Amino acid sequence: MGTYRIAVLPGDGIGKEVTKGAVEILQAVATRFEHEFEFVYGLIGGDAIDRKGTPLPDETLDMCRQSDAVLLGAVGGPKWDQNPPHLRPEKGLLAIRKEMNLFANLRPVKFYDSLIDSSPLKEDVIKDVDLLIVRELTGGLYFGKPSGRRMEDGEEIVVDTLLYKREEIKRIITTAFELARKRKKKVTSVDKANVLESSRMWREIAEEVARDFPDVELEHMLVDNAAMQLIRNPKQFDVLVTENMFGDILSDEASMLTGSLGMLPSASLSTSGPSLYEPIHGSAPDIAGQNKANPIATILSSAMMLRLSFGLHLEAVAIEKAVQQVLASGYRTADVAKKGQRIVSTKEMVDEIKATI
Amino acid sequence: MGTYRIAVLPGDGIGKEVTKGAVEILQAVATRFEHEFEFVYGLIGGDAIDRKGTPLPDETLDMCRQSDAVLLGAVGGPKWDQNPPHLRPEKGLLAIRKEMNLFANLRPVKFYDSLIDSSPLKEDVIKDVDLLIVRELTGGLYFGKPSGRRMEDGEEIVVDTLLYKREEIKRIITTAFELARKRKKKVTSVDKANVLESSRMWREIAEEVARDFPDVELEHMLVDNAAMQLIRNPKQFDVLVTENMFGDILSDEASMLTGSLGMLPSASLSTSGPSLYEPIHGSAPDIAGQNKANPIATILSSAMMLRLSFGLHLEAVAIEKAVQQVLASGYRTADVAKKGQRIVSTKEMVDEIKATI
Ligand SMILES: CC(C)[C@H](C(=O)O)[C@@H](O)C(=O)O
Ligand SMILES: CC(C)[C@H](C(=O)O)[C@@H](O)C(=O)O
């Protein structure tokens, strides 16, 4: 019986289809649980470049700031690949993360019994996997300056900068510990402390933060080893916390534990102000507009919104249960279908989940 | 009937055991094919810190430069983890790479029929995988300056720098194309061009280099996607080329395609001067000195040495065949053994391979 204002940013490619699906699911939840969700729409990414000349128009940002939560689809596509850096769709995504201070990106990876056949990994490796990647989202290589080309001694060189403030590292690690406390009480801090100065500071701060959480176990793992261990024995993990770029790589890799990127939701939390929810997949230009995309990652992202932004646990569980049930009944979009299984469209998948709620 | 001088740098932990094994294999090859291999030994890593006060003594470097090839074990261990940066074992490894100009790190990943049970991945995914990761080894985040902490506006910040010269990118990509030409004629250039300036320059140079190799196909792939595709469908790859840190992460991940890091050799090539050969695994302090380590990665590295540095193809094949045969006969070190299989020691494994040559 609450009233919530949700900013929807469909973005590009399949972003439009999957957010449409998630909005329908949220509407079904509103009806069943007697809430009022107001949806307001904004432009971001390539779409915004085409219509407003910038990947993140001010109106969009203002609208998001005045909402209770943001639901985002995906951005990008070949149409804008040759654009100069400031006119690239991804800049819109990076800008909204930065502007809204969305420093903590939560990417849960959960095993689905019914998708066992879709994963390239063996059953005993992935059965019962339940881990959470906490990715730092507003610092590191993504935002550090200088970033660009210059001439030095007659040679062209290019740099990007991996930069962190102490406080930025501290708050993301603290967030990871707080989340671990509510889970299996283990934090794996992933770094490259045998090479990078930033990682050595990261490790030091992790040790400091750990002192305030005596009930949570802390382990350090080098990023190359983590990339291996995620595949070798993912069940060893509870919460992984890592810097922006490492988190980007490891979470896409981890999607294979569930069989498809199309299954993984995410939440991006700010220190204060509204949070943003988005699937971890991209805009998939190759299948855009074909009613083929897997809407589940976005639908599960909206469940995270209900739980984390609105405190609506029952409602979140209702969505998650519905997804599980529909998968168990054998419905599959193309990305997770195996030979012989009937493939459903985006719309059919959404309808099934809606009917199940 | 050639004479070759090989510098052996055992390093720390299991580095000592695995290089010892590889030297025995090389000696067996020398006998059988009537070559003369002279082995000279040098200190590196923690061992060098303890005995010479530096992770890469000048004597070691001089000795390597005066050899025809270098065989390295591994460096590092908890004993030196609290040392200041310049007195860490890894600094020795990074320094020898830089000093000897070993810019191209070749990491082949090949499927072994007999190890199918050791991989966490399903058989249809990994069967017949045969890919080569070409990792840039002397630039990027590993070596860029500035790298360190400083105060800015009263806050402590830390930076590392991802830096490349145009020429550095060009030579590694050219190397990848040359190698692909002798293989399946496909290069996948891995970058993060939707975010990093360095990646945009990388992509641009890849396009330029590709023009000189009209017979080789070039594709670009974002690093997050590559981390996923390596697990999802590794057979799509022939040669992957990427910057230092991405290559570090992706090659450890890719080791799971063969079941163990203990299987993967590598070669590090310089523009001129001797090349260096080392397993991609680390010093594994937890099992060091226990006669448990898998010596195969180092033995296969010595096969790469014979082929790439000395042009001894038959001899290289003899080693590779022997490894294959011994695995097919069921011999397994602990890292690749499955329940019910008899586990052999490092020494037994070496003896078996030697007997087979
Ligand atoms: C689109 C891209 C900029 C983005 C990122 O790298 O953060 C995406 O890969 C993600 O993980 O959300
Ligand atoms: C030991 C470490 C410095 C090294 C690296 O990161 O290059 C290792 O992981 C490797 O891959 O050879």
TrEMBL record, chains A, B:
Annotated catalysed reactions: (2R,3S)-3-isopropylmalate + NAD(+) = 4-methyl-2-oxopentanoate + CO2 + NADH
The residue ranges of the Isopropylmalate dehydrogenase-like domain are: 5-353
- Which EC class heads this enzyme's classification? oxidoreductase
State the free-text cofactor note. Answer: Binds 1 Mg(2+) or Mn(2+) ion per subunit.
Q: Name one GO cellular component term.
A: cytosol
Q: Which residues bind substrate?
A: 97, 107, 135, 224
Organism domain of life: Bacteria
* Pathway this chain belongs to: Amino-acid biosynthesis; L-leucine biosynthesis; L-leucine from 3-methyl-2-oxobutanoate: step 3/4
According to its UniProt entry, the function of this protein is described as:
Catalyzes the oxidation of 3-carboxy-2-hydroxy-4-methylpentanoate (3-isopropylmalate) to 3-carboxy-4-methyl-2-oxopentanoate. The product decarboxylates to 4-methyl-2 oxopentanoate.
NCBIfam families, per database record = leuB
Protein name as it appears in the record: 3-isopropylmalate dehydrogenase
Q: What is the lineage of its organism?
A: Bacteria, Bacillati, Bacillota, Bacilli, Bacillales
Q: Which gene encodes it?
A: leuB
